[in-house]
Amino acid sequence: MDVLDIARWQFGITTVYHFLMVPLTIGLGILVAVMHTLWVRTGKPEWLRMTRFWGRVYLVNFVLGVATGLVQEFQFGLAWSEYSRFVGDVFGSLLAMEALLAFFLESTFLGLWIFGWGRIPKKLHLAALWAAVIGSIVSAYFIIAANSWMQHPVGVTVGDDGRPQQVDFLAVLTNNTALAAFSHAIVAALMVAGALLVGIGLYQLRRRELAGAPTTDVDHSVWRRSVRLGGYVSLAAFVLVAVTGDWQGKLMYAQQPLKMSSAEALCETEAPAPFSVFAWGKLGSNECDDVHSWTVPGLLSFLAHSDFETAVPGVNELQEEYSAVYGATYPDDPSFGDRAGQPIDYTPVLAVTYWSFRLMIGMGAVSAGVAAYALWATRRGRVPTSRIGVYGSLLAVGAPFVANATGWVFTEMGRQPFVVYPNPDVPVGEQVYFFTAQAVSPGVTAAEVWTSLISLGLLYGALAVVELFLLVRLVRRGVTTGDTTPTPPAVGSSRRDDDDPRPGDDRADDDVLSFAY
């Protein structure tokens, strides 16, 4: 492989690994804040114990997510410097706001929440958590806005040097591609968090049932409420994922029609266009004429146009159109390296786009099915004891993670060979676009990128072991009787109870360490 292919593998591996943690951080953060709010409003101990247990899981994932996310920014400068120069005028403001406004807000208030147990009033403590959660959501929006600009560049003009110059920051922030992608990502994150609550909650309920534990104590209520909350959130999120996904699909047809046709392995233009359920043939070699599908008539036309009759262009036709507009071969320019003057294949790898799209949908449906089972199995106070059902639900925790990861693989691989995709709403002569082949850093050798890829792979593998070890240990430990924090006095009060931990007390430090464990 040449430098470009290795660099793409490196960025893909590290980004997918990092993105496994992002949706859990966002989704679980929202649910933990809801649990904490319900405890403050009701004073019920089960909500407090739920907040403490799931808060620990949230913190472990947050820390590992931050550690793995830092690598992404370094890669921009090391392996993708030409890309960084091209998008710098647009991304500079977005990434600066993400770091200064969102990330600092998130990390600062999360620290207040971690160390504020028993030290600050309950409502201020709760507000700190909500501020941290909101910070993570805002941070996600800035990142998604940057990615969406690559999919659909707006708010820029082409400068004398050929690079885009930002002229309308508000247009970048309100890009319809960003709005659709953000809403889709947030509800998908809630599916991830809901699946985690369902899987671990069912496991703990069965574990307690086999051990003969009572069904009337607080701990039983903790796990039952976790399952019920996770089940309802997962089902609601699945419906919203479908709605926002339909929005994205219609935008994709208008902005990146070749991505949609590749997702369906639709080789020739058809009216009405069918939706492919299963395809076989030479998908991997991109020989589109040798692809066969089992289809649902007219459904792709509906997904693209909201009717069952309109034509959808096929891969072969679109390949010819793109070649006519953007060139049949790469420019004979040193910035393209060995690909200079070579033919351009505008069709993404059909096997990747086709199957990643179906994995995204299929794994989301699996998660919704498990949520429905969990709600049915725990109805009217029942405790599920089916080994297959409970352990199947525990394994299915991974389903929405796979759905999120394959969704991003589809999104990024589907826009190749462009790293910045041309906006079809802009006249051809004024369009901003950038080929992936010219985005890699000049002078970087294959050996150097291989070294960083292997090093990062080993490091990320070790971090995965650490995270799994910590999460498994937390799950086996479950909730503890120590997960109850006395209410601190109101602001200005001089009351002090013997059981109320304060800074300087060993009991206060033990409580913080126990929570952050």
UniProtKB/TrEMBL annotation:
InterPro entries: Cyt-d_ubiquinol_oxidase_su_1
Membrane spanning stretches: 20-41, 53-71, 91-115, 127-150, 178-205, 226-245, 355-376, 388-410, 449-472
UniProt biased composition (Acidic residues): 507-517
Pfam families: Cyt_bd_oxida_I
Keyword field: Cell membrane, Electron transport, Heme, Iron, Membrane, Metal-binding, Transmembrane, Transmembrane helix, Transport
Source domain of life: Bacteria
Region (Disordered): 482-517
Family: Belongs to the cytochrome ubiquinol oxidase subunit 1 family.
Annotated protein name in UniProt: Cytochrome ubiquinol oxidase subunit I
